C-alpha cells in the first residue's frame, strides 16, 4: 500500500502552460482523502505554490527550492534547510564565465537579484514566482541562499555549465532544471535527500513511496522512491532511472498514476517494453504492470 506521493510541479503536475489540469486536480485531492501524503517537490518557493497547495488541499511537509528547503504546507514553518555555503565561490565562477548573465539569489522566503535587465523577471513570473527584490550587489549581507539561478537560451546555459561545472565540482551542485534554468545548490540540497528526510519524519519505507518527475533535478527524487515514474515528456537521464513511465504532462500523466494508486492497480508501463509506445496507449491499456 502506498503512503506517500512525491511529485515534481512544472513539467509534471502542471501542463506545459503551467496550469493544473482538472483531472489531475481531482485525482490528487482524492488521494489525500484516502490518507496518502502528497509532497510537492519543486524548484519554487513555497509562497509561489500557495494557490496550488490550497487547490489540492495539501498538508504537511513540502519540498521546495529543488530540495534545499522543506516547509509545512499550511503554516509555512521551515522544517529543514540546506543552504549554499559556497555561494561566493559560485558567484565568482558565474561572473567570470558570463559577466552579463542575470543571477537570482533564492532564500527560503524571497528572490534577490542585482541584474538590471528584465529577462529574469519575465521568466520567473511565468513560473508564478514573486517579484524579484533588487539589491546593489549579491553578497553575504542577504539572507542565507538556498540556491542561485540563471536563465538564458539552452545553448548559452550549456556553454556556461561547461565552463563553471569543472571548477565547482565537489563544492557546488550544478543542475539544469528546465531548458530555461541552470541552478547552483549545496551538494546536500537534492529532492532525494529532502524526500528521505520526509520519509524518516513520517516513518514511511521507500517501497511505500511513489515519485514522479520529468527533469534532471528529479533524478535523486526518483532514486529515493520504491516506485519511480518518469513522465512521457521526461528527459533521457530520468527515464534511465525510472522503473516505469506514464503519459506526458499535457496528457494527464500524473492523474493516470494517481488513479492507479487509488484503484490498487499496477503503476505505469515498463520502459524497456514500451519505450516507443505512444502516450495515448498508456491510458488505453490503463497502466500495465512494470
Description:
Strands 8-7-6-9-11-10 form a six-stranded mixed β-sheet. A five-stranded parallel β-sheet has the order 2-1-12-13-14, with helices on both faces. A three-stranded antiparallel β-sheet has the order 3-4-5, covered by helices on one side. It has helices at 22-33, 50-56, 87-97, 119-126, 154-168, 191-202, 219-224, 236-239, 253-263, 271-274, 279-284; strands spanning 4-8, 37-41, 61-64, 69-72, 78-81, 103-106, 111-113, 133-134, 147-151, 173-178, 181-185, 209-213, 227-230, 244-245. With 290 residues, the chain is an alpha/beta fold. Strand 3 (61-64) and strand 4 form a beta hairpin.
Kindly summarize this structure in a few lines.
The protein has 290 residues and is an alpha/beta fold. It contains 11 helices and 14 strands.
Distance between the termini: 16 Å
Q: Regions with pLDDT < 50 over 5+ consecutive residues?
A: 273-290
Helix content: 25-40%
The whole-angstrom Rg is: 18 Å
Number of helices: 11
- Protein structure class: alpha/beta
Mean of residue pLDDT values? 91
Order of helices and strands: EHEHEEEHEEHEEHEEHEHEHEHHH
Largest sheet, in brief, is: 6 strands, mixed
**Quaternary organisation of the protein chains:** single chain
Strand content: 15-25%
The shape, in one word, is: globular
Widest beta sheet: strand line-up? 8-7-6-9-11-10
Q: What is the tally of beta strands?
A: 14
Amino acid at each position: 500500500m502506498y503512503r506517500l506521493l512525491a511529485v515534481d510541479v512544472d513539467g509534471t503536475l502542471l501542463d506545459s502552460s503551467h496550469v493544473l489540469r482538472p483531472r489531475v486536480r481531482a485525482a490528487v485531492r482524492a488521494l489525500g482523502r484516502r490518507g496518502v501524503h502528497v509532497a510537492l517537490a519543486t524548484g519554487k518557493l513555497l509562497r509561489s505554490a500557495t494557490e496550488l497547495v490550497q487547490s489540492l488541499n495539501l498538508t504537511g511537509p513540502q519540498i521546495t527550492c529543488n530540495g534545499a528547503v522543506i516547509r509545512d504546507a499550511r503554516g509555512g514553518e521551515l522544517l529543514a534547510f540546506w543552504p549554499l555555503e559556497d555561494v561566493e565561490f559560485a558567484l565568482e565562477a558565474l561572473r567570470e564565465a558570463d559577466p552579463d548573465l542575470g543571477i537570482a539569489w533564492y532564500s527560503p522566503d524571497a528572490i534577490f537579484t542585482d541584474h538590471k535587465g528584465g529577462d529574469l523577471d519575465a521568466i520567473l513570473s511565468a513560473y508564478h514566482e514573486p517579484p524579484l527584490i533588487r539589491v546593489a550587489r549579491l553578497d553575504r549581507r542577504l539572507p542565507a541562499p538556498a540556491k542561485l539561478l540563471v536563465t538564458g537560451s539552452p545553448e548559452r546555459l550549456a556553454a556556461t555549465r561547461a565552463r563553471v561545472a569543472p571548477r565547482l565540482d565537489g563544492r557546488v551542485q550544478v543542475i539544469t532544471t528546465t531548458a530555461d534554468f541552470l541552478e547552483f545548490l549545496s551538494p546536500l540540497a537534492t529532492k532525494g535527500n529532502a524526500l528521505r528526510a520526509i520519509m524518516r519524519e513520517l516513518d514511511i519505507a521507500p517501497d511505500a513511496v511513489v515519485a514522479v518527475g520529468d527533469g534532471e533535478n528529479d533524478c535523486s527524487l526518483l532514486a529515493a522512491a520504491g516506485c519511480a515514474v518518469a513522465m512521457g515528456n521526461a528527459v533521457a537521464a530520468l527515464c534511465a532511472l525510472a522503473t516505469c513511465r506514464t503519459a506526458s504532462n499535457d496528457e494527464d500523466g500524473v492523474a493516470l498514476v494517481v488513479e492507479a494508486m487509488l484503484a490498487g492497480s499496477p503503476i505505469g508501463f515498463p520502459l524497456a517494453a514500451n519505450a516507443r509506445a505512444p502516450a495515448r496507449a498508456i491510458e488505453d491499456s490503463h497502466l500495465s504492470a512494470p
